[in-house]
Amino acid sequence: MAKRTVAVQLIIFGKRNKEDLAGVLDDVAAAGYQGVETGCLADQVSGKEFKKMLDDRGLAHVGAHFGGPTLLSDLGKVIDWLGETGGTDVPISDLRTIDKPLDVYKQCADEYNEAGRRCNEAGLVLSYHNHSWELKPAQDGSLPLEYLYAQTDPKLVKLCIDAYWVRDGQVDPAAFVAKHASRLRILHAKDSYLEEVGKRSFAPVGEGVLDFPAIFKAADKSPARWIVVEQDVPDHDRQAAECIASSRKAIKKMIKL
Predict the structure, then answer these.
(1) What gap in Å lies between CA 212 and CA 220, rounded to an integer?
(2) What is the C-alpha to C-alpha distance for residues 177 and 217, in angstroms, rounded to an integer?
């Protein structure tokens, strides 16, 4: 994995992102992270102001995660904001494909290719963030996620592989990362306390059942730029800051990064 940088997705901080963004970034920096992934915060804070907040804390901006039916209509706003924040990436996900046939995936893939082209022209990198529903076999037995990958241009649409959701889809995360390493741009790392799949259980990296040493090793030969810790919500009555600090310590111990 070339020039790996460890960042955190701010989703775990919930409403604090709106109420105390500066404090959130203080917690991220204190935990030893090198960057953050956000949604598009253009309506909350200007790109220039956000960049200053990051610079003051020695943090980089991975980029803005969004997607769905407004992908193409909202993309210009996201591109403009990232042009000011210094963000480099646009990871996308899409609820429109849940339990849908492959022709819906094809329609979405066409949009992703167009979005990827526009990002490419702006000097940004678009990547697709998976969940587990894309790994539910289609009627012909194929995996919709693999079909989606095949329908998107690898030069325009990279991969943001979420290890937790791959496992939730009953696929081995390390093997999946290894298979698609050449296209990997962002590795999302979150753990689970449960051996059983299909039930939500989010844990700090290293505290759950996912084999992250194997997952990180599988990504070693990829061109991925970012490892992004993404724990959707805090756990066990702990604060978000404690959870992300635990993940950061575990990653540093596992891969000395």
Answers:
(1) 12
(2) 9
Separation between Cα atoms, residue 128 and residue 55, nearest integer Å: 27
Q: What 3-state class would DSSP assign to 45?
A: coil
Q: Which of 175, 241, 164, 169 is nearest to 205 (CA)?
A: 164
Contact indicator for 181, 142 with CB cutoff of 8 Å: no
Residue ranges and CATH numbers for the domains of the chain are 5-255 (3.20.20.150)
Q: State pLDDT tens for residues 194-240.
A: 998 988 899 999 999 999 999 999 999 899 999 999 999 998 789 99
Answer whether 0.85 is exceeded by the pTM. yes
Closest CA to 251 of 215, 224, 223, 209: 215
Q: How far, in Å, are 51, 132, 195 from residue 167 at the CA level?
A: 35, 8, 10
Tens digits of per-residue pLDDT, 76-108?
Answer: 999 999 999 999 999 999 999 999 999 999 999
- Render the burial of 6-34: b for 16+ CB within 10 Å, e for the rest: bbbbbbbbeebbeeebeebbebbbebebb
Q: How far apart are CA 6 and CA 34, in angstroms?
A: 6
Residue 22 C-alpha from the chain's centroid: 22
